[in-house]
Amino acid sequence: MDIININIIAEEDCLIPSYETAGASGADLKSKEDGILKSGERRLVKTGVFIELPAGYEAQVRPRSGLALKHGITMLNSPGTIDSDYRGEIGVIMINHGSEPFVYKKGDKNSLFSARWRPGEKKARGDGERTGNCGPWSGGQACFFPARGTQKEGTKVKGLSY
């Protein structure tokens, strides 16, 4: 399996994305605050997560099928693309297509995050940062590393090997 290193800063440990199972194709992103999404309402739900992708990679944020089936909750602009040079907080544009208000709590899983090599990019060889093609399409996983100089440095993330 190919692994890429992604520097990450999470406002709190409970918000660090994690693969919940060995077969998961995306890491879970979580809500950083409580909220209510009324029927027909859309909102940017913040995650408290900031990433630094290696050049040549993109990250994608996708809706969770369980939320769509059970509550009518999905994402607009899906998949959401995160460019390798974006350094802001990851937000999820959610919409409630259901008939009832949807209540979410801090730490609730709201979407899936994955990273992959951008199609058409030339791959760097022997740079020590990454090898081969990475992402769920190739059986690879993103490996989240807390950014240097943050209080999160050295944090172990559930389900990830590094």
Q: Tell me about the biggest sheet?
A: 5 strands, mixed
CATH architecture group name: Distorted Sandwich
CATH topology: Deoxyuridine 5'-Triphosphate Nucleotidohydrolase, Chain A
User: Percent range for helical residues?
Assistant: under 10%
Number of helices: 1
Name the CATH homologous superfamily.
Answer: Deoxyuridine triphosphatase (dUTPase)
Computed over alpha carbons, the radius of gyration is: 16 Å
Between the first and last Cα atoms, what is the distance in angstroms?
Answer: 12 Å
Placed side by side, the strands forming the largest sheet appear as 6-8-4-1-11
Mean pLDDT: 77
How would you sum up the global shape? Answer: globular
Q: Would you list the SSEs in sequence order as H and E?
A: EEEEEHEEEEEE
The first-level CATH class name? Mainly Beta
Number of strands: 11
Strand content: 35-45%
Model description:
This protein is mainly beta. It has one domain: Distorted Sandwich (Deoxyuridine 5'-Triphosphate Nucleotidohydrolase, Chain A), CATH 2.70.40.10. Helices cover 4% and strands 40% of the residues. A five-stranded mixed β-sheet has the order 6-8-4-1-11. The two termini are 12 Å apart.
List keywords for this structure.
Deoxyuridine 5'-Triphosphate Nucleotidohydrolase, Chain A, disordered C terminus, five-stranded mixed beta sheet, about 160 residues, 11 strands, mainly beta, globular
